[in-house]
Design goal:
Keywords: Cell membrane, Heme biosynthesis, Membrane, Transferase, Transmembrane, Transmembrane helix. The chain has about 300 residues and is mainly alpha-helical. It contains 17 helices and no strands. Helix 4 runs antiparallel to helix 10, helix 7 packs antiparallel against helix 10 and helix 11 packs antiparallel against helix 14. The longest helix is centred in the last third of the chain and has 29 residues.
């Protein structure tokens, strides 16, 4: 029995500790992509129904986060980046996180089905399962491709939002999926470049641990080249236009240039400046995804006007 399993904690944890289990900062970007997918879909939704749908998708995302924290409590405790999460910090018992995750999973799926449609609800249920079971329990600890395959979980939300409005899947939603899916590896590998020791201590087979930082740098740059065509292609669909294409072109040039700088750097250079370029690229990756979806939203409003 581990220290975490033996933890008996306080009788009643604070509300904020349970909110932290839902990974609100991480899930905020995911929820935003779902909202954009819903809002730009060709079939408009009643604003109140749309609000409810996004709320239930957010609850489903939070449920995934709670289940992830429940299962990963042992490795969170040894990683500097995650040691202060509610379970390893001794604020919330593991069984509470499991109960919260399962309860919110059931609630979010049922309510999304009633508010929008059951296709979208089934899609949300599959996404929760994929993140909690396929990624967290299986892939994360077994293969350096954990982020590549597991990244699908974070790429499904814009498709779920689209499905809420349309009841199905379209080329546009598939390309939004591809945008997030191919963005995920360089985003997380950039983080892994300057957080390798955390993953090493936790025994997670991140690419930096299994293949080294030099190979990871090559993969980061390679994925920026794979990502760009899908991002641009989205601009030539019914949800795209001149505004989105302009923003996407600039962002992809910056992203490719950043990946090239990472590729050309030696480990000695990175250590010397405290991984300044890698950290800057990681921040750029956050802006990259957010601004792409914001541009889709702006393009939709321009079209409406």
């Amino acid at each position: 029995m581990t220290d975490i399993d033996a933890y008996h904690g306080p009788a009643e944890a604070g509300f904020g500790d349970y909110v932290a289990l839902l990974k609100p900062r991480v899930m905020s970007l995911v929820v935003f992509t779902a909202f954009v997918g819903l809002w730009i879909a060709p079939q408009p939704m009643n604003p109140f129904v749309a609000f409810c749908a996004v709320l239930f998708i957010a609850l489903g995302g939070g449920a995934s986060g709670a289940l992830n924290m429940w299962y990963d409590a042992d490795i969170d405790a040894v990683m500097k980046r995650t040691a202060n999460r509610p379970i390893p910090a001794g604020l919330v018992p593991k069984q509470d996180a499991l109960a919260l995750g399962l309860g919110l999973s059931l609630l979010s799926v049922m309510m999304l089905g009633l508010a929008a449609n059951w296709f979208a609800a089934g899609f949300l249920a599959f996404t929760i399962f994929f993140y909690a079971v396929v990624y967290t329990i299986w892939l994360k600890r077994s293969t350096p491709q954990n982020i590549v395959i597991g990244g699908a979980a974070g790429a499904f939300p814009p498709m779920i939002g689209w499905a809420c409005a349309t009841g199905g899947i379209g080329l546009e939603s598939l390309l939004m999926f591809a945008l997030v899916f191919f963005w995920t590896p360089p985003h997380f590998w950039a983080l892994a470049l300057f957080m390798k020791e955390d993953y090493h201590k936790a025994g997670i087979p991140m690419l930096t641990v299994t293949h080294g930082r030099a190979a990871t740098r090559r993969h980061v740059f390679g994925y920026t080249l794979v990502l760009a065509p899908f991002a641009i292609w989205l601009g030539f669909t019914s949800v795209g236009g001149w505004l989105y294409l302009s923003v996407s072109a600039v962002l992809n040039l910056l992203f490719i240039a950043g990946g090239w700088r990472i590729l050309r750097r030696s480990e000695d250079q990175a250590i010397a400046d405290g991984y300044r370029v890698e950290k800057k690229y990681f921040r750029l990756s956050l802006y990259y995804l957010f601004l792409h979806f914001l541009a889709l939203l702006a393009q939709h409003w321009v079209g409406a006007w």
